[in-house]
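Protocol step 4 of 5: obtain the predicted structure for the target chain.
Materials: sequence only (see below). No template structures provided, no constraints applied. The aim of this step is simply to have a reference model before the mutagenesis design in step 5. Sequence pasted as it appears in the construct record:
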Amino acid sequence: MKMIGIGDNGVTGLLPQYKEWIDESELLVGGERALDFFEDYTGEKIVVKGGLTKLVAALQQETRKTVILASGDPLFYGIGGYLAKKLPLEIYPTMSSVQLAFSRMQESWQDAYLTSLHGRSIKGLAQRINGRGKVALLTDEENSPNAIARYLKHFGMHEYKAFVAENLDGADEKYGWYTLDEMEQQAFSPLNVVILLATYAPKQYPLGIDDEEFSQRKPDKGLITKKEIRVLSLQAMQLRSTSVVWDIGTCTGSMAIEAGKIAHEGQVFAVEKNELDLQNCLQNQQKFRVDVTAIHAKAPEGLDRFPNPDAIFIGGSGGEMAELLKLCTSRLKENGRLVMNVATIENLYKAVTALKENGCEVSILQAQLARSKPILDMTRFVPLNPIYIITASRKEQEHE
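Step 4 output (structure tokens):
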């Protein structure tokens, strides 16, 4: 069983050997667009639509000579990777749309960041591409070049200019450069690739963003997880690039934003009960280019909308601590971590008790920090409020 990549130039772009294999086959499988290139095919055709489960089951029983047609390189955001795990396939790719786009652009692409928005949410793209010099995006009708331009402008990513390549290798091939404003207004073919090229390096914020950089509630500034505590808490969460994170009581969004920079290929979900604080959180997301899902609710309300997390941060509790921790620990993934900051020994006792009752292993770090402050020609230290950083993990189940 063979899988052959095909481009928009159809049969003319195929190697003679590939054409011969197709002519000799008895079953030809592919999308409608690919099958339309073979009007004179004498064998049976199967159109690939929707899910692949039924198709795989049928092909696993197939004894005829079969060729599956796929767009471009079947192993580049294509069906090749999935079908190769289910079927005895030989895969023969042609050039992918991204390869063709870079060739039209006359630009090397070994250093490009490649990602697909085809059939996927654009959510989180900001932190995935922030600071990258070269980005290639596969698009769809919803995540069109116009929508991408609006998204980038929302996060202030004006350093990018865009190269849009349409109908590559097809009769209506077209490509060119656009500013974000131009790309937002231009009409494009549904079949396109967008390449972003940075014209300058934007400001970057390393781990431990200064507190003053965040928009905060006025005049009551200070309702923020302080930089030093934030860094210690993030370390305790042990985030990976693909982690799913909850930030409960996000306030300014400082923890959610720093977590999103670390878990840039994952997802961050935040909940905040104060609407004005939530507005600050949304402003901070734009400034720091971290696209978080943040909702207005008082936890544990709203948490049922979020997927199970790898890590949870709780910066404060609205009085429903026992209920909240029970729910959070029940939703935490295997080997996940819950990190909680508390300022009083009463809440420390309540939290540790509740976490242990829910089967967690608990450790506590007491952080007593002070920052230097000039006084005349000398320096003194101003202490920060002591904070207890509680780290909880689910006990591993014993396997018999």
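Step 4 remarks: The chain is about 30% helix and 25% strand. The domain at 211-394 is CATH 3.40.50.150 (Rossmann fold).
Proceed to step 5.
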